[in-house]
Amino acid sequence: MSQQASPAGPLLQTLVSLLLLTGLPGAVSLKNVRMRVVPAAVEAGRPATVLCEYDLENSGLYSVKFYRGTHEFYRYSAADEPHTKVFPFPQGLPSSPVNLQRSNQTQVYLGEVSPSLAGNLSCEVTTDDNFVTRMVYTNLIVAVKPEGPPSLSATKAAYDPGEVLYATCRAKPSQPAADLSFYINDKEVGHGIPEVLNTSQGLLQARLDLHLRLTEEHFAGSRDHDSLPLRCHAEVPHLFIHNQYLRLPRRTKQPIPARVTQPNGGVRLPASGGVLLLALLGVLPGLTATMR
Ligand SMILES: *[C@@H]1O[C@H](CO)[C@@H](O)[C@H](O)[C@H]1NC(C)=O
Ligand SMILES: *[C@@H]1O[C@H](CO)[C@@H](O)[C@H](O)[C@H]1NC(C)=O
Ligand SMILES: *[C@@H]1O[C@H](CO)[C@@H](O)[C@H](O)[C@H]1NC(C)=O
């Protein structure tokens, strides 16, 4: 029996060792391929590092290729000398910002990032045994700061409690779009989601409207309660924070002015006015009597 089975033995052994050498079909010898850009939103003209990280397990590295869209712009290949290579960008894109001295098999250093580079970046890792290949991608966000604070306007020049305030805040174009919010007396009001428009320069312009029924409380932060301090806050985290202010006067002046709360003004104006009138009425007949 054992002699009959023997011809199959060496063949099976060869098959098994062949599989062990080359790796089982579909066996993963490359894990956790991941990509990110540091910083997450790069300011135009500033440097950035594009990282492509991976776990080779027991394999060796064959190559790492970096793409912008479908164009390969950088390659690390273990077999070639030198290992690193830069490919110029096609027309319409800037000259390659890759700094070879600071790039290797896990990262590409870009010396100066231009807005036109924004978009899909991918990296493709290949191992040297049976050429297991993995590709991942990330989005390169090229940040552009707005030229200044947002603009803030209201439909009317003055408001009273009980009226509805219609205000609009428009950010200057930026990338990414600014997040906008309204504040009165440092308390957020409105809680809306900004509408975002594309500009011809490829930037984003955020706009937020406020519809708010006003109460006495909204005027409480101003001296004499005579105005409404409205603020629009524009922000992209880690890039900029801008505020724009608009002080809207109260339309109808209050009948009770600040004298009520003045330290020495113990006498209320309407009351004192009344007392004065009574005094005059009482004194006048006396005066006329003594004049006779
Ligand atoms: C990014 O580019 C890669 C390579 O061209 C492609 O496979 C992938 O689908 C793209 N991803 C997106 C979200 O466009
Ligand atoms: C690639 O370069 C970076 C920065 O110089 C370094 O921190 C990293 O260890 C390098 N990676 C390898 C695999 O040598
Ligand atoms: C702005 O442009 C981008 C890319 O061109 C597009 O994906 C997006 O939908 C546009 N957004 C608006 C609000 O038009």
From TrEMBL:
The chain crosses the membrane at residues 269-289. Residues 1-29 form the signal peptide. Keywords: Membrane, Signal, Transmembrane, Transmembrane helix. This is Uncharacterized protein LOC117653432.
